[in-house]
Amino acid sequence: MPTVGALVRDYVTQDSVARQLARVAEVQFVESTAALVQASVDGAVGAVITELGDETGRSVAPMILELTARAPSVPIVLYDILNRPAIDRLSEILVPGLRIEFVLRDAEPLGTTVRRALSAALPPTMAPILIERFLPLAPTSLHVFLAVAALKAPSGRSLEHLAHWSGVTRRTLARRLAAAGWQPPSVVLQTFRALDAVWLMTVCGRTARRVRELRDLGGPSSVGRLMRRYLGIAPRELRDAGGFGAALDIAAHAITGNHTGVLSRVTHARR
Amino acid sequence: MPEAQFAATRLSAAQGVVLRRTGSQHQLVNTNSGSGCILNAMGRRIWALLASRPTFPAIVGCLSGSRDHERGALAGDAGRLLMAWQEAGLITWTS
């Protein structure tokens, strides 16, 4: 059984982590970021689990930098609650393109993500790009939902789950999005899923078929359908349309209700 | 999750560190300890960014621009460089 290193401060959470990973990995709890980095550098752990704060309560941002430099092949699982202060901290920690995943403590099962991390099936994260791009466009009442959606859209979780994890009902969420002039919550979520597919294809080099398998998207044409419906582009048009950056522009304009200009520019570029 | 406890999440030049130019060569020198480091192209870009006390993700974002497919590799390169600077006392974590 593989071993994971965990920097988790309180005993109740340690117990929860140990129970959740009982059939997945041996858990080596450490007392400090230095010990976690050393275990990673030594190859003693196959993945690391950490809260957003270290043993003294300071951000783990310096540790993430050190792991990136000294143990780049070790995937990182952030395990914490997600509220507005945590979102600020995340933007100082999450590096796009690295194999970092966030698991919501007390809400999501840890085992699934850790199993994927250990099997090298964790793709580089896109979530910080979505957080950086979409949160400044939204009122603060939507920030937690948008962060949850950015982090969790690829998981295929239902809108009810995401709304619940954001601390609101689906109806409240819909009302807040409408008040901000945004598209309904289901459209926001599906657009983020479409962006995730684009990210996996253009940045991570996955085929449409592999994306469908990775994200459990259903039928053979599901990826194309998702992209055409929510981004207005087909997989084979991605490169000519401008790749992930262009898809991000399309998504930003489409879900914030100001989409005519970008869609026409992309249509023009495709001609 | 008290705000103050999370303070040190940004990078900046350590006190006493200066940039010296000799011909086309750029070198960071810690005038207190005498340690130093010659800068390559990436080092020069990162050094320029440190004036705004960026986070590590922000540095990677600035270096990669729209080249999303290079972010992972750039993060690794930038991380190794920053760790070397940190160990040489050239940079520090700040709020």
Description of the molecule:
The complex is a heterodimer of chains A (271) and B (95). Chain A is α/β, with parallel strands linked by helices and 271 residues long. Chain A folds into two domains: 3-125, 3-Layer(aba) Sandwich (Rossmann fold); 159-270, no CATH class. In chain A, 54% of the residues lie in helices and 8% in strands. In chain A, helix 3 (61-70) links the parallel strand 3 and strand 4. The termini of chain A are far apart. Mean pLDDT of chain A is 91; it is low at 259-271. Chain B has one domain (11-89). Chain B has a three-stranded antiparallel β-sheet, with no helix packed on it. In chain B, helix 2 packs across helix 3. The model of chain B has no long low-confidence stretch (mean pLDDT 89). The chains are: A alpha/beta (271), B alpha+beta (95). Chains A and B meet through helix 3, helix 4, helix 6 and helix 14 of A and helix 2 and helix 3 of B.
Write a brief caption for the model.
Chain A has 271 residues and is an alpha/beta fold. Helix content of chain A is 54%, strand content 8%. Chain A has two domains: 3-125, Rossmann fold; 159-270, no CATH class.
Name some characteristics of this structure:
A: 271 residues; alpha/beta; 15 helices; 5 strands; disordered C terminus; B: 95 residues; alpha+beta; three-stranded antiparallel sheet; 37% helix; globular
Quickly name the level 1 CATH class of the largest domain in chain A. Alpha Beta
Helix content of chain A: 40-55%
Radius of gyration of chain B: 14 Å
Number of domains of chain B: 1
CATH topology of the largest domain in chain A: Rossmann fold
N-C termini distance of chain B: 16 Å
Q: Please state how the strands of the largest beta sheet of chain B are arranged side by side.
A: 2-3-4
Average pLDDT level of chain B: 89
Question: In one word, what is the shape of chain B?
Answer: globular
Secondary-structure content class of chain B: alpha+beta
Average pLDDT number of chain A? 91
Using only C-alpha atoms, the radius of gyration of chain A works out to 19 Å
Number of domains of chain A: 2
Structural class call of chain A reads alpha/beta
* Total strand segments of chain A: 5
Strand content of chain B: 15-25%
Order of helices and strands of chain B: EEEEHHHE
The helix count of chain A comes to 15
